[in-house]
Amino acid sequence: MELKVDLPALRGQDIDPNTFQRVWDRVMPNQPAPRSDAIPDSAVPAQPTEPPEETPPVEPPPVEPPEEEQPPVTPDLPPVPDCPAEPVCPDCPACPDCPQCPDCPQCPDCPDCPACPDVPDTPDTPTFCLGEASQGDAARLETLMTLAQSGAAAARAMTRRASGPCARALAALACDHRSAFRRLSAAYFLITGRRYAPRCAAPTLPASLPLALRQQFLWEQQWEQQNKQAAQATADPCLRELYLELAQEGAYHAGTIRSLLEQMT
């Protein structure tokens, strides 16, 4: 193996040539020693090359999760006051579109304005159901009570002539008319504070039951018509409802009598 000598390093360290020769002969026998003139004066001892510094790996920046979209924040603003209304006539609050009222805010009487709507006069006191305001229905109630009592008496008289299903149907008809009389009588008392007892003559019926049923059929239609007319004429909502219910009963009774006559033929 060949031994290499770093001559520039020896030159820089001022080693004595005789000493170097002795060491060389002892270490490297039979090998020529390097010449001293081969070492230049400007030689600089070689410096070992330092290994390159290891560059630490660059870590990627952390990925932040996407931020949730926040709703826009609306600043709390003070309420905006409404614009003041245009001056109107103090005696004419129902005509803001009248072109003459803003020019005369102190006028005692509002001038005629074709665009002003008519304001209905509201009563100071409310109208009660079945109260003194319904006094105009007293005579109509007396007439209907008289008819109801006459219809009940005629139905009872026909019940005594019939038998079986026909008698039961006529008994139910008489019961309905007695109930109608009580309902009309209660409404009459609430309105007037008095009781009314009509005086009715005994019913006059034909000799045969079919003819009596025919007469009662026509009577029930008249009863229905009387109640419908009363419902149209009254202003009391309670009386109107009562009249309409009694009119429906009259139509139902007429249908019942017609069914009885169909069974007899």
What does this structure look like?
Helix 3 packs antiparallel against helix 5 (about 210-235) and helix 5 packs antiparallel against helix 6. Helix content is about 45%, strand content about 0%. By secondary structure, the protein is an all-alpha fold.
Helix content: 40-55%
> What sort of overall outline do the alpha carbons produce when their principal axes are compared?
rod-shaped
Q: Main beta sheet, described?
A: none
Please work out how many helical segments DSSP would assign. 6
Average of per-residue pLDDT values:
77
In the predicted model, the low-confidence regions spanning at least 5 consecutive residues are: none
| Count of individual beta strands | 0
**CATH architectural label of the domain at 136-264:** Up-down Bundle
Beta fraction of the residues? under 5%
User: What is the CATH topology of the domain at 136-264?
Assistant: Ferritin
Quick one: CATH superfamily of the domain at 136-264?
Answer: Ferritin, core subunit, four-helix bundle
CATH class designation of the domain at 136-264: Mainly Alpha
The H-and-E topology, N to C, reads as HHHHHH
> Which structural category do the helix and sheet elements fall into?
mainly alpha
Rounded to the nearest angstrom, the radius of gyration is 63 Å
